[in-house]
Amino acid sequence: MTNFKPKRVVVTGLGAITPIGNTAEDYWKGALEGRSGIGPITHFDASKHACRIAGEVKGFDPHDYIDRKDAKRMARFAQFAVSASKQALADAKFTIDDLNAEQVGVTIGTGVGGLNVMEDQKEVYINRGPSRVSPFTVPMMIANMAAGLTAIHTGAKGPNSCSVTACAAGSNAVGDAFRLVQQGYAQAMLCGGTEAAVTPLAVAGFASAKALSTRNDDPTRASRPFDAERDGFVMGEGVGILLLEELEHALSRGARIYAEIVGYGMTCDAYHMTSPVPGGEGAARAIQLALKDGGILPEQVSYINAHGTSTQANDRTETTAIEMALGKEAAHNVAISSTKSMTGHLLGGAGGIEAVISVLAVARDCIPPTINLENPDPECYLDYVPNQSRTQMVNVALSNSFGFGGHNVTLVFKKYA
Q1: What torsion, rounded to 10 degrees, do the Cα atoms 233, 208, 145, 25 define?
Q2: What is the pTM of this model?
Q3: What is the pLDDT of residues 293-333, one digit of tens each?
Q4: Do the Cβ atoms of 273 and 367 come closer than 8 Å?
Q5: Catalytic residue IDs
Q6: Can you list the domains of the chain with their CATH numbers?
């Protein structure tokens, strides 16, 4: 029996393309400013839809990162992933070459992959016949292609996978990458979540399920987690990518370290396709498992980036789950915010961009706000950092993600020391 000691894992690079900024730094600046990225849908004619607003990425040009021929053969969610992964590598000053390629891997989660490709090609099939369907339909559509194409375009030949756990997918991908480095299966991992699901079918489907806000005439105030007047979530798109690195490897090359990732907890409600279990027992267990994994006490938690979707059920359930997991005193002392109030809900990409925010909160000792929190729901009674960012020491940050199917994930980041 070997005496294997788990390796310490640190974050050395960040990339992000979001409705409020197309780099990690611009995204962070927008979040601290409390900038809303929600507006009228422009990707398609939404005039007949009940919900006509979304958090769209603006000004993104894939050709800044990918040549035109290759970009044309990628769905938008994969373009996002490849581009943000290149950002993260550049941010970390990390070069993948023949000497280390087999020790660098990729895990990138998504909820629905290339849904826009499926919708577009179905129209081609109906209107022009099966022979006119693109031969790239399947390889552009399938969910794993964000991870696969990222490896192709960066040269990463190590472990490669794709989590598809609905709105927990990005966080699962980060947690799985953490485990791979921690257990010695890779020296570094590109990881996170990507989504580009602002499409006619997706918007119509969520709206039919009564999940989306219909505050169409006031889009910047539509996403309002924990507010009594919330009426549903707002869809968003984009990507968040972290470069995780084994600590000794990072130190050996003089890397800048943003934070250390120390905990990963995941559970299932085993309750309902779309609704969280009342009382938040499954989410609470994910938080507790992540804290135990990282050796963190509840009173040590400085900040929680909440799942905070702006739906009635989620926000109440997450409030009770946090109190159940941390205990009443610690829960009422911790700062919590939902950056979905600004970006909308990126579905499988949410855990990626919210991990980026959590890491930067630890690195910069600042907490972004929950905007539009004007009339707090009495059943959402914790400190949700309303409307203004807050400067304070952030030694430990949690990032919560919960997905349809009952998936619950919590990640734990702390200051490197």
Answers
A1: -20
A2: 0.97
A3: 999 999 999 999 999 999 999 999 999 999 999 999 999 99
A4: no
A5: 167, 307, 345
A6: 9-252 (3.40.47.10), 264-414 (3.40.47.10)
